[in-house]
Write a structure and sequence with these properties.
The complex is a heterodimer of chains A (about 140) and B (about 625).
Chain A (H helix, E strand, L loop, with lengths): L8 E4 L9 H11 L10 E6 L2 E5 L10 H5 L5 E3 L5 E3 L9 H5 L6 E2 L6 E2 L9 H5 L5 E4 L1
Chain B lengths: L9 E6 L4 E6 L2 H7 L2 H12 L13 E4 L14 E6 L6 E6 L3 H7 L4 E5 L6 E6 L2 E6 L8 H11 L6 E4 L2 H4 L7 E3 L3 E3 L4 H7 L2 E7 L9 H17 L4 H4 L6 H8 L20 H7 L1 E5 L9 E5 L9 E3 L3 H8 L7 H14 L3 H16 L18 H4 L2 H6 L5 H4 L2 H9 L9 E2 L2 E2 L10 H8 L28 H18 L9 H12 L5 H21 L11 H5 L14 H15 L9 H6 L3 H6 L6
Parallel strand pairs in B: 1-6, 7-12
Antiparallel strand pairs in B: 1-2, 3-4, 3-6, 4-5, 7-8, 9-10, 9-12, 10-11, 13-14, 14-15, 16-17
Helix pairs in contact in B: 1-2, 2-19, 2-21, 7-20, 11-12, 11-13, 18-19, 18-23, 19-21, 19-23
Amino acid sequence: MEIQAGTPRISFSPEECTGCKLCELFCSTFHSKAVNPKRALINIKTVKLGTFEANVCRQCQPTPPPCANACPVDAFYVNDAGVYAIDSSKCTGCGSCVEECPYGAIWLDPVANTALKCDLCNGDPQCVQICPKKVLSEVK
Amino acid sequence: MTIPACYAGKILRVNLTSGKVSEEPLKEDMVKAFIGGRGLGAKYLFDEISPSIDPLSPENILIFMTGPLNGLPVPCAGKHVVISKSPATNTFLDCYAGGFFGAELKFAGFDGIIIHGKAEKLSYLLITDGKAEIKSAEHLKGKPVDEVTEILKEKNKISDLVVAAIGPAGENLVRMACVTNDLHHQAARGGIGAVMGSKNLKAIAVKGTQDLNVPDIDKLSEVAKEAIVEAIKNPEHEWALLGGTPEIVDLSQEVDVLPTKNFQYGEFEKANEINWEAIKNKIFIKKVACFSCPLGCRNLVEVKEGPFKGIILEGPEYETLALTGSNCGISDLNAVAKFNLLCDFFGLDTISTGNVVAFAMECYERGLITKEDTDGLELTFGNVDAYIKMPELIAYRKGIGAILADGVKVAAEKIGKGAEKYALHVKGLEYPGYDPRGSIGMALAYATADRGACHLRSWVIAKEAFGDLDPFTPEGKASEVIDDQDRNSIKWSLILCDFYMADYSIMVKLLSAVTGTQYSENELKLIGERIWNLTRAFNVREGFTRKDDTLPPRILEEALPSGKAKGHRVTKEDFEKMLDDYYSLRGWTKDGVPTLEKLKKLGLGDVAEKIGLKSN
């Protein structure tokens, strides 16, 4: 079965990205209620000096996507934004979804040890809101 | 007060002599009085080193410090500070660098690092999530910063490791050696990299994944979002979003303060070849930012033609364009970019390096040094071939570089023959990119800056030559300089970037939101003044008084020959008047020493005692 990017999802245009990490900061603040960009559900990677890549869930089709299929404890659910999210109270941090993701867009929270995947902030993505250069947008 | 959770809460102590690392909690009374960054670092330095020590001896300490705002989702909090006693000036020294190092250090669990002693062999410090190890850096000996950064990432298998390192200049104790972090961010001035080199410490590499906390995260988020939107909209930040600091080239040229050919002129006939327009047309690629900065003033550039084709860097900033461009008579922008890159990776401060090269060029043209001294180099103003060799010669103390590596003050002493007339410095720190003859308040700003000639503590030119105040009158300048110095003292304790036009109301809002304690503008003003007096007290303890708050001969004696400031110099009378006003408004003696009463009022009674002030 072919895997395609779904909608809605976060889209990134790298040209104007300055690498300020405000997206990671506000994402992690919103989700973990602590300040820690390493706990963000989006990761801005420096490919080389001044060149950045955003690693963030593509909200794969078909439904359910490989990550949700791989979860042994049923921690994935569809949220109000219409995308798969992870219930961290159920997640055991086994890493099955991390392994299954073909894009490497799921990782484990370094503090809580639960899986992190972009859930579009349940409908109001913080990264899109804060990005000073508007390089992040929500494809609807 | 307990220590708020926006601080990591811990200081890392590293003793390189014994090889021991330990941690200690931040002290509540110190945090309350000095906040963080500049203030806290200054207090540690004042308390922990003895007066009159050699800055390059193991007795000196090297402090990396952050503040309560670093790492948090607030605008423009990407800087950290490196503090020590300066080997260039023997004064207090604090150097600020942007990038990602400061935030990473806090996420690794430390507000600061205090480094003592000297390692037996070249070493580096690896800090990961609350753990610190001293490791061998013998394999990094003599390597430039870009290679060191790559090697440490690979060796430790951490691709996002953040590295602050010295280049060969720091290892060779060059007194204008910087510490470079994230490749192109420098804790630049006063030979801070030489202090690191004297300790046999090549680099500090950090990775952190720990939480910072605030009392009300949703409230902070709200306050910060508002501040970020306001910062982007504020017309005072428009320059940052567009050209960044290179836009100042045109401003300086217009008002005759652009250092040209070792400050012989205040305007450069080829300024339009090194200004923002030139950068935009020839080498600009895109804007880049430091951690948490919505403005992103930095320019990523690539040289697209000629012998330096292919080099990519963040820069050159205004100071580099002025001191290594016009001040050296260099109008080849590609060469300035290359010189900038060489300084970054050899680990040299571009301001002091530009100065000392310009000084050597003038000495050469006047016959004070000859081809014999330069090993055949035709060291004239504007000669790119000779100019481009200088960073390496200085960093390795080779050839003429051996004479220049300790800065213009020492170089003038070595050369003799009246060379001090051409040495632009205060207390041994070279002049920044604003000629005070076109904006007189800068003379006072440079003379009274605690680390020697520095433009950052008070950039009063913004109000004078670049603003509405008369740039040639000494009247009213002391109070402007004092306001700037006190405001920046608190701003750099939080630590917010210089380029963020955060007034007291913004600082109050952000600090109150992250700590959960409601601060007032007056409290922050008082803390700023306390910190300024503390660093002055440090310098007084080292023997610095009014006699050292000086102007270089050229600024006092020679009038600018052309441009808007034609015929202007800073007369002794005007300068002394500004100093008198300044000391009087500061509540210091006529000799520039803080009084016992003043220090006590600022809560610095212990400091007063340590500098020998006693009540009768």
